[in-house]
Structure prediction request, 419 residues.
Amino acid sequence: MPNLLVEKPAIEGGRPVRSGDNPLPKVFPREIGPNAMKYFRELVESGNTANFLERFDKAFASLIGSKYALSLSNCTVACHTALAAAGVGPGDEVVVSPITDYGTVYGIIAQRAIPVFADVDRLNGNVTAETIERVITDRTKAIMVVHWAGIVCDMDPIIEVADKHGLVVIEDCCQSILAEYKGKKSGTIGDIGCFSFDVEKHMSCGSGGAIVTDREEYLERARNFAYARGSIVEDPSFGRRHKVLGNNYRFDVVRAALALAQLEILPRKVRRYSELGAQLNEGLEEIDGVIPCRVPEGSDAAYWIYPFLVEVEKFRVSLDEFGKAVSAEGLPASPGRYYLVPESHDLLNDLRYTYGEGVAPGGRADKYLNKRYSAEMTPNAKWYVEHMLRWPFTDKYSGRDIEDILAIVRKVADYYRVR
Prediction:
């Protein structure tokens, strides 16, 4: 029965904490770097000869703290390019997080490699060294960690496992740009880091991405794969020869000008994301039945989205109903079950429709097509998505906004908590 001693939630007929007349700030409209028009004008007046690609790559590498950066058309192709640069190919296994997006696993499939999902820490949705090592085999080529929601994984133990088994470490940092781990920025801890400049990300130019690395070998392989389409020039009198399969994953020079302007305001914005997230974590700790996602010791969180956990057994409503009640108060929180890749990506179990009958990553059907993917492979990840609510985060929140967000969650929790 409802707790009659607390305020009735809006979904039950009460007054919302934040109504349509006073909504919480949204991601859009975005703040655009003040130099954007200057850079566009420079590009136009140069007759399209101003090399913003090279300027952006140098500035991005410097800000991230890597030797090299290569800008690309989006983060999906950045992940693919990183795998190609690392030499991942048919039949190789890539250990990857089960809580992520299509963009992370696409490159594995495209390289005809085999995704192997490691389970996660229940309290933050990230893979750990223990869960990774549990699924490593003699066919494992690389580890692809995802810094889910902008929370950086506990990387030192993961690097130790990778070194022990001679594996390449690729970081998917599409949600964690500039977030740090023990003084190093995400993307610079492993061998290759992948980033997104998609329309909703911390830094946006509509669409875009990049990889970073300290190894020139990986940079050159990536450039050959994503820019030169696998070609080299052995004889200038003849011209290019396409030696391996490559792609046209080049970044757009017009977007590069906008990205450079966005890069200039990024540190301030990410600091604000991190500060606001830390304030929410502290406040949610005080609400019985609600758990902020755990940030590992030494890690930082940039919070592209803000996730929190609901101990559903403590409430009279389901996770979905809890989310609807929170949304009715003015905070658009909802589950994200589709982030559980082994359950949401049906193509993993039906690749014959992608590659054709009898053709599969690794060649022989018994290496892949007979492998069945399901949520049961990663029970902690399944638990996580069945207890997690999240919403799009923004650095535009004020202190009052954070107070109201906490008031919304507390109001719903107090009303529906089992007494």
About this structure: The first helix runs from residue 36 to 45. DSSP finds 14 helices and 14 strands in the chain. Residues 310 and 387 are 5 Å apart (CA to CA).
